[in-house]
Design goal:
Structural class: alpha+beta
Distance between the termini: 22 Å
Low-confidence stretches: none
CATH architecture: 2-Layer Sandwich
Order of helices and strands: EHEEEHEHEEHEEHEEHHEHEEHHH
Strand order of the largest sheet: 12-1-14-13
CATH class: Alpha Beta
Largest sheet: 4 strands, mixed
Oligomer: single chain
Helix content: 10-25%
Number of domains: 1
Strand content: 5-15%
CATH topology: Alpha-Beta Plaits
Length: 322
């Protein structure tokens, strides 16, 4: 059972607009130094898509039948390099060719942004913010041979002691979400720390603070008055990403849905089979609840669930964390 003081996040995928404000806030605060260009503790992907690092969901790791599963390290080309756009030629030399990103490996973060899947008349995609899940059973910690990764009892955040880390990459291979990196600057593993220095000062994590779509909630999971607790444990509409990995994440997602006032002549816009692959079988009752509560609001009836998701005031998204 989760630590009641566990810091947990809920991300409403119906409100994420893919603006990358969370990505930029995290990048500038934590991994903006030279040599750290390929490290994104937080990033927003397009789903369906290959993600970052490339095909992270196909590399194994996590747990299978209760035991640590073998995972594969991403290759350098799965991270790619920073994108370079030849603005000079296009803007000042009069060339009319399309501006194209350049990368040595033809891959980088957001390389396949907005591509999605599906054929006309039903193409589909949604934006998927991803950060360390601060799992109840972190595979990275179990895989570390030097016990350099710990789960803080005061808030459940998973952090790395760089002084103990020997940079062998076992944690990188073990994380099924591809959210542990090898930092070429510090020569140690690196990952999201949940902005615990900000939390200890009573501030929200940078990604939550800068979310322009007001899509991110954060609170202690045991705080019964918080939207996080209500969405995860009461309404049960906030679900972990790829629960089949067995790490018991503490980042939860409101799955994307369309309400009854939206015509879908070709069937559901986003196939429920794909959503089940991402969020597990619990997505079916979650979608039913979301659609039913949305229908009530459309008909002019009150809905406590819709009020939680709308989050009229900043305090509805972030509870006191200190």
């Amino acid at each position: 059972m989760s630590n009641p003081r566990q810091i947990a996040f809920v991300i409403d995928l119906n409100k994420c607009i893919g603006c990358q404000a969370c990505t930029v806030a995290c990048k500038r605060l934590w991994t903006g130094e030279r040599g750290q260009e390929q490290i994104y503790w937080c990033n927003v992907e397009t789903a369906p898509g290959e993600g970052y690092p490339r095909k992270w969901a196909e590399r194994g790791g996590g747990f299978k039948n209760g035991r640590l599963a073998k995972g594969r390290m991403p290759a350098p080309e799965d991270y790619g390099g920073p994108l370079r756009l030849d603005y000079e030629a296009r803007l000042f030399e009069g060339r009319k060719q399309r501006v194209r990103p350049q990368s040595a490996s033809n891959w980088s973060a957001n390389w396949d942004e907005d591509q999605g899947a599906g054929d006309y008349p039903n193409p589909y995609f949604f934006y998927l913010p991803r950060l360390c899940n601060h799992c109840d059973r972190p595979a990275c910690a179990e895989a570390c041979p030097k016990d350099a990764i710990i789960k803080r009892p005061e808030d459940g955040l998973v952090v790395i002691d760089p002084g103990r880390c020997k940079n062998d990459g076992a944690c990188v291979a073990a994380c099924p979400y591809g959210k542990v990196f090898l930092d070429p600057v510090t020569r140690a593993a690196a990952k999201c720390i949940g902005c615990f220095p900000r939390i200890e000062q009573g501030q929200a994590p940078a990604c939550v603070s800068e979310c322009s779509g007001r899509a991110m909630h954060v609170a202690r999971l045991g705080d019964a008055a918080s939207s996080v607790h209500q969405l995860v444990n009461v309404w049960k509409v906030a679900l972990p990403l790829r629960p089949d990995f067995g790490t018991q994440p503490n980042v939860f997602y409101i799955p994307p849905f369309l309400g009854p006032d939206t015509e879908e002549p070709e069937g559901p816009r986003i196939p429920e089979k794909f959503l089940m692959e991402q969020f597990g079988p619990a997505v079916t009752p979650a979608l039913a609840t979301l659609r039913a509560e949305h229908a009530k609001r459309v008909q002019g009836q009150p809905s406590r669930l819709m009020d939680l998701l709308i989050a009229y005031k900043p305090g509805d998204l972030v509870r006191p964390l200190g």
